[in-house]
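ESCALATION

Customer reports they have been waiting on this structure for their group meeting. Please prioritize. Original submission:
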Amino acid sequence: MTEHILHPRIIENKDWATLLFVVSFIIIAITKATNENRFADFLNLMFSDKYSKVYREPSHLKGSFTLSLFIVQAISFSFFIQLSLTIFGLASKTDYLLYIQILTFVIFFILSKYLIEKIIATAFNIEEFVEQFNLQKVTYRTYIGLLILPFNIILFYQDNTSILIPQIIIAVILIANALTYLLSIKNYQNIIFSKLFYFILYLCTLEIAPYFFMYYLYTKGSA
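Update from on-call: job pushed to the front of the queue and completed.
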C-alpha cells in the first residue's frame, strides 16, 4: 500500500502589494492632472533647476502637491527597504505585516525628524534656512522615490534577483543625497556662512547622527 504524504501548498499573497502600486500610480496621475505645469517641471528636476527656483518658498512644503507625492515616496521607499531585506535573505517580500512596520517607521522617522528640525531651527534662529533646506531635501527625496518605484515593481514580481541590484540602487541614492546637500550648501551659502557654527551643529545632530545610529543598531542586531 502506497503511503501518500500531503504537504500544504503555500500561496504567497501579493494582492496587497499590487493594490499599493495601483494606489501610488493613481496618486501620481491625480497630482499630475491637478498640477500639470508644476509636475512637468518636477520631472525635469534632474536636467533643470527651474523647479527649485520657482517653488523655493517654504509654503510649498505643506502644499497638496508635496503631501501627495510624500505618500508615494513613503510607499516606494518602504517597498525598497523590504525588497532589499528580502534579497539579502533577511525578510520575505510578501510579508505585509513587515511592510506595515517598515512604512510606519519610515513615516514616523521623517515626520519626527522634521519636527525636531523645526524646534532646533527656532532655537538656533535659522528657521529660514532650515525651511528652504527641508524643501529642497523633500523635493529630491520625492524625486528619488518616484524613480525607484518602477524598480520596486520589477523586483517584487521577479524572483532570484541579484544582490548587486539593490546595492547599486542604494549607492545611487547615497550619491544623489550627497549631491543634494552640496547643491543646497551652494544655493544657501550666504545664510550658511553667516551662521556656520549653528549649521555644523545642525548637520551633525540631525543629518548625520540619526543615520549613524540606525546603521549601528542594524549591524549590532545582525551580528
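Sent to customer with the following note: The two ends are 50 Å apart (CA to CA).
Escalation resolved.
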